[in-house]
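Quick one:
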Amino acid sequence: MSTAAPALSDASAALCVVFIFLVPLAGAGLALINTGLGRSRSAAHLMMASLFVFSIAALAYFICGMGWQGFAGGPAHTLTIGGKPWSWIGAEAFFERRLALEGSTATLVALLGMLSAGLAALIPLGSGADRWRLSAACISTAILTGLTFPIFSHWVWGGGWLAQLGANYGLGEGFVDVGGSGTIHAVGGLTALSIAWILGARRGKYTVEGMPSAIPGHSSVFVLFGCILALVGWSALNSAGAILFYGVAPAQAALIALNTALSAAAAGMTAALITRTRFTKPDASLTANGWIGGLAASSAGCAFVSPLAAVAIGIVAGTLVTFSVEWFELRMRIDDPGGSISAHAMGGLWGVLSVALFMHLQGGASGQWLAQVLGIATLIGFVLPLTYGLNLLLNYFHLQRVAAEGEHQGLDLYELGAGAYPEFVTHSDEFSQR
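Output:
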């Protein structure tokens, strides 16, 4: 698997454009899921924040993100270690000034990268729901999409050192992440973990004894409809990533969509069965988190595994996400209203690891295990400290959490001056303790 950008035929480029045009549906799905799992008195705020965050991400990526990410075979800054060149950051011009904007592969990479950055930026909104200031979310997004995301995406999709592990050290095919299990989901999910740590829990989430209280989301309809939109968007994203970054034939798009859907379905059903067994009834929010975890896990190897493997990946993802939500909430005392950490970070990390497992079982190249583990180590050992440190620094200069008055009143009225549901009473605290 070459680290140079594959040359696309006209048919491949045209199909890739169609897939990229469908990717924003994934963003709409995430926005609905985050909003539905939050309180009704912050619903308009979450939807507005989703629009703002996606817009900020597009602008930040345009200004410098694509410059840092670059594309395989494009200009990059390299270090020579052991007589071999290692690409560590892109060297494209800012504002995409040197891109040939006539449908070239680099242009498609820039467009897909911009939308991927937006998706990564939407993930932390779920963990910061009901208490994250709109201005702080916008600044944090600019940092994520202008620096953190492009650096890691260069290492994976831009021909960087993780992608070069195969060519330089013979570690399988190098780090493989077709649709962003690590690059989008894990980066966004680890940022969500940082935000949840910095903001702290919502008022009333924990009793004085430290036990978590249930604060139900306000709209299961939003959440479950968002899951369907996310499936369409991520099937398109996975297909576009496979064609653009790994030179997969357009005909493989059917297999990719099949694997994506099977993984999501298996994960969602697994979560539903686990909650049905434990709580006598299936839980809608955990089922949705499991579904998204299945999408996250499917993305890394969707083009290189069998449908049976996709089902197995989804089953593990659904199980992992269901118990991870409880572990973070009960043991770590991390309040994550949208389940973003479990669904995206944990699901994404499992997806990265699953590539090595199932490619090996299907006769893949040796050394793939180490390449994938190095990618996971980079996410946990570099991306997490970086995104936490940058957001902690931001919190020092610009407080990220809304005032107690705003949280009690609801972010709709406090920050926007109008509620999402003005004809209904949306300020009940019956599910929480003050």
